[in-house]
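Researcher: Next sequence.
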Amino acid sequence: MSITIDKVNKHFGGYHALQDIQLDISEGEMVGLLGPSGSGKTTLLRIIAGLEQQDSGRVLFADQDVSSVHVRDRRVGFVFQHYALFRHMTVFENVAFGLRALPRRERPNEEAIRSKVMNLLEMVQLAAMAERLPAQLSGGQRQRVALARALAMSPRVLLLDEPFGALDAKVRKELRRWLREIHDELHFTSVFVTHDQEEALEVSDRVVVMSQGHIEQVGAPHAVYAEPKSRFVFDFLGHSNALKGNIVDGRLQSGDAWVKLPSPVQGEAQLYLRSHELEVCSLGNDNAQLPFRVVSVSPVGAEVRLELQPQGFEGDCWEVGISHAEWESRHLQRGDTVLVRPRIGHLFLEGESEPRTLRW
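Model: Next structure:
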């Protein structure tokens, strides 16, 4: 089931929560709505579901306008952050609830209900816990029950609002992988809300980055991360380091620090550099002079993360990732002085909304 959001606006009093939202979601696609609190992502999800009504614009399912269709008639499955399970009902009865609540003429018989519910519980790996109460389950198991309950109604669209927000990091990662597998098996169209960048990048076919009621960028996860189209996306999506200054004689200058620019430009500018787009070195070169003092060394996962305090120019601490082998060979410690040189950068000139990608 494809979804089209056509110039949707929503106000809450004087607050413009959604501003001319235009978005096309293909059938069978999993789309992540990513953004900080107050960006409008949950409001948009609720409008798709029919739980909120837009002030203007349309919502279409497979080219059919459902803007005035009641939530119960949209055939949308909704999974909430805090499960919303019935505490006095067993796992089986929670999943079966929607089927049993259907009008008599639409309601399956008991044998069909039992068969469908048990098939879903097998799929979410909870068949052995069908007679347990929600209180007897872990958080991850309860969220799987909530998903099975949503799927029991054979929804045309599955919507998830921060589905893993109440879970610890390890369980979140396991459920992300499991949700993607379920999605690929059943091929339903799904939209989920998250403020977790890793979650959105790992699970989504496409990511929609939202800010202050409008869409900043839409694209495949790798494209949005590698080629952000605005300062907001750089600041929000992954850690980035920034050098702000003036371009003089082909160099971006800030205090004692400078970077030579490969292309001839002028004026005030801001250069964004991802932590993996930088190299730590002992000597400067013709491309850059960026001095730092090491303030933190964190051997985390597959890399060692260095936190660096600018020396001779103003700005926040920078973050650079190096390999364990490089860290061991350099013997870098807190308090050491190092130089950094860029390999790839993204330059915003004053007055320009999109960056220029630079390579050295």
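Model: The radius of gyration is 25 Å. The mean pLDDT is 91.
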